[in-house]
Amino acid sequence: MGMSLEERVRSAVAALLYATGESQTELAGAMGVSQAQVSRRQSGTAAWSLADCEAVAAHYGIDVLELLAGPTRATEALPAARRRAVGRQIGTHRPATVEGGV
Q1: DSSP reduced 3-state for 61
Q2: CB of 64 within 8 A of CB of 13?
Q3: What does the DSSP assignment read for 63-96?
Q4: How far is CA 89 from CA 34, 52, 61, in A?
Q5: Which of 2, 57, 72, 93 has its CA 20 to 30 A from that of 84?
Q6: Considering the entire predicted model, what is its pTM?
Q7: How do the pLDDT tens digits run along the chain, 102 residues long?
Protein backbone atom coordinates (compact mmCIF):
# COMPACT_ATOMS: atom_id res chain seq x y z
CA MET A 1 0.00 0.00 0.00
CA GLY A 2 1.11 3.62 -0.64
CA MET A 3 1.97 6.33 1.83
CA SER A 4 -0.63 7.64 4.24
CA LEU A 5 -1.76 11.23 3.86
CA GLU A 6 0.33 12.22 6.89
CA GLU A 7 3.42 10.60 5.34
CA ARG A 8 2.78 12.33 2.01
CA VAL A 9 2.55 15.72 3.72
CA ARG A 10 5.74 15.14 5.74
CA SER A 11 7.57 13.97 2.61
CA ALA A 12 6.26 16.90 0.57
CA VAL A 13 7.34 19.42 3.21
CA ALA A 14 10.80 17.82 3.38
CA ALA A 15 11.08 17.92 -0.41
CA LEU A 16 10.01 21.57 -0.53
CA LEU A 17 12.50 22.50 2.17
CA TYR A 18 15.24 20.78 0.18
CA ALA A 19 14.16 22.23 -3.20
CA THR A 20 14.11 25.78 -1.84
CA GLY A 21 17.11 25.46 0.44
CA GLU A 22 15.05 26.69 3.37
CA SER A 23 15.43 25.57 6.95
CA GLN A 24 12.68 24.48 9.30
CA THR A 25 13.27 27.76 11.13
CA GLU A 26 12.49 29.78 7.99
CA LEU A 27 9.34 27.76 7.30
CA ALA A 28 8.28 28.10 10.93
CA GLY A 29 8.67 31.87 10.76
CA ALA A 30 6.50 32.03 7.65
CA MET A 31 3.85 29.90 9.38
CA GLY A 32 3.99 31.85 12.64
CA VAL A 33 5.03 28.82 14.71
CA SER A 34 8.28 27.73 16.34
CA GLN A 35 10.93 25.59 14.67
CA ALA A 36 10.24 22.96 17.35
CA GLN A 37 6.61 22.78 16.20
CA VAL A 38 7.67 22.21 12.60
CA SER A 39 10.17 19.59 13.80
CA ARG A 40 7.47 17.74 15.75
CA ARG A 41 5.20 17.72 12.70
CA GLN A 42 8.03 16.48 10.49
CA SER A 43 8.99 13.73 12.91
CA GLY A 44 5.39 12.54 13.21
CA THR A 45 5.01 13.28 16.92
CA ALA A 46 2.47 16.00 16.00
CA ALA A 47 0.12 16.08 13.03
CA TRP A 48 0.01 18.65 10.24
CA SER A 49 -3.41 20.33 10.45
CA LEU A 50 -5.33 21.48 7.40
CA ALA A 51 -4.57 25.07 8.42
CA ASP A 52 -0.87 24.16 8.56
CA CYS A 53 -1.08 22.62 5.10
CA GLU A 54 -2.75 25.76 3.73
CA ALA A 55 -0.02 27.93 5.29
CA VAL A 56 2.77 25.74 3.88
CA ALA A 57 1.20 25.70 0.41
CA ALA A 58 0.70 29.48 0.44
CA HIS A 59 4.28 30.01 1.58
CA TYR A 60 5.64 27.97 -1.32
CA GLY A 61 3.17 29.34 -3.87
CA ILE A 62 1.53 26.00 -4.62
CA ASP A 63 -2.02 24.72 -4.33
CA VAL A 64 -2.75 22.81 -1.14
CA LEU A 65 -3.83 19.82 -3.23
CA GLU A 66 -0.33 19.64 -4.72
CA LEU A 67 1.08 19.50 -1.19
CA LEU A 68 -1.35 16.75 -0.19
CA ALA A 69 -0.48 14.77 -3.32
CA GLY A 70 3.06 14.20 -2.08
CA PRO A 71 6.64 15.23 -2.72
CA THR A 72 6.77 14.76 -6.48
CA ARG A 73 3.66 16.82 -7.21
CA ALA A 74 4.58 19.45 -4.62
CA THR A 75 8.06 20.04 -6.01
CA GLU A 76 6.85 19.96 -9.63
CA ALA A 77 4.32 22.70 -8.74
CA LEU A 78 6.96 24.84 -7.00
CA PRO A 79 7.48 28.09 -8.95
CA ALA A 80 10.93 28.34 -10.51
CA ALA A 81 11.59 31.56 -8.59
CA ARG A 82 11.22 29.65 -5.29
CA ARG A 83 13.84 27.03 -6.14
CA ARG A 84 17.25 27.26 -4.53
CA ALA A 85 19.67 29.53 -6.36
CA VAL A 86 22.31 26.80 -6.61
CA GLY A 87 20.01 24.75 -8.86
CA ARG A 88 19.43 27.69 -11.19
CA GLN A 89 23.16 28.40 -11.45
CA ILE A 90 23.96 24.80 -12.29
CA GLY A 91 21.15 24.58 -14.83
CA THR A 92 22.15 27.76 -16.70
CA HIS A 93 25.92 27.19 -16.84
CA ARG A 94 27.25 25.83 -20.12
CA PRO A 95 30.77 24.66 -20.94
CA ALA A 96 32.82 26.96 -23.21
CA THR A 97 32.67 24.46 -26.09
CA VAL A 98 28.87 24.69 -26.19
CA GLU A 99 28.87 28.50 -25.99
CA GLY A 100 31.40 28.70 -28.82
CA GLY A 101 29.20 26.60 -31.07
CA VAL A 102 31.58 23.64 -31.16
Answers
A1: coil
A2: no
A3: -HHHHHH-HHHHHHHS-GGGS-HHHHHHHH---H
A4: 32, 32, 21
A5: 2
A6: 0.81
A7: 688 999 999 999 999 999 999 999 999 999 999 999 999 999 999 999 999 999 999 999 999 999 999 999 999 999 999 998 764 443 344 444 444 444
